[in-house]
Amino acid sequence: ERKLAQQERKLAQQERKLAQQADEWGVAKARAVAQLRQLQAEKQQLAGEKADLLAARDREARRADASEARVELLEGRLADLEAAARADAAIRRAEAEQLRTQRLPDPAGPLPCATEALRAEVDKARRAEETAAAAESAAAARAAAESA
Predict the structure, then answer these.
(1) Distances from the Cα of 30 to the Cα of 19, 22, 26, 27, 59, angstroms
(2) How many CB atoms lie within 10 A of CB 124?
(3) Does the global pTM surpass 0.70?
(4) pLDDT (tens digit, 9 = 90+) per residue, 32-81?
(5) Mind giving me the DSSP string for the chain?
(6) Cβ(121)–Cβ(96) under 8 Å?
(7) Residue 62 near residue 101, CB atoms below 8 Å
(8) pLDDT at residue 90 above 70?
(9) Contact, 125 vs 89, CB < 8 A?
(10) 127 CB neighbour count, 10 Å cutoff
């Protein structure tokens, strides 16, 4: 009987150990599951943040492309305006030179009318040159601002 009682105690002790191990494993499993869920939630959050960042990067790239296209368009317009201003200035200079070299008789008097017309043409030519210079200066300032 003693052996039997001893075996029963031994079996009961083993049973308690196994129950304790099962409890410990259950707690460890619950912790692992909780950690796994937390990691999955963090992973989802990071995936959302990554998607937001990629979308923002794409928006910025589209904005940069649109800005670059606008700059190219404006540069083309500026070049056209500069060419027109230079052509206008050349025409004004040619007209002023022609007026200076022409000595046509004028009913109101050759010198006063020719002088007034010449002054007006010289003023027009000077304004056209100033406009062209201002356009060139604006282009240089814009180019400097873009490179900065």
Answers:
(1) 16, 12, 6, 5, 43
(2) 17
(3) no
(4) 999 999 999 999 999 999 999 999 999 999 999 998 998 888 888 888 88
(5) -HHHHHHHHHHHHHHHHHHHHHHHHHHHHHHHHHHHHHHHHHHHHHHHHHHHHHHHHHHHHHHHHHHHHHHHHHHHHHHHHHHHHHHHHHHHHHHHHHHHH-----TT-HHHHHHHHHHHHHHHHHHHHHHHHHHHHHHHHHHHHHH-
(6) yes
(7) no
(8) yes
(9) yes
(10) 14
The pair of structure tokens assigned to 114 is 């020719």
Tell me the one-letter amino acid at 29: K
Q: Are 132 and 82 in contact (CB under 8 A)?
A: yes
What does the alpha-carbon distance between residue 102 and residue 113 come to, in Å, rounded to a whole number? 12
Number of other CB atoms surrounding residue 121 within 10 Å: 20
Which string of DSSP letters, residue by residue, matches 112-139?
HHHHHHHHHHHHHHHHHHHHHHHHHHHH
Angstrom distance (rounded) from CA 133 to CA 16: 98
Rounded Cα–Cα distance for residues 90 and 41 (Å): 73
Cα radius of gyration (the chain) = 46
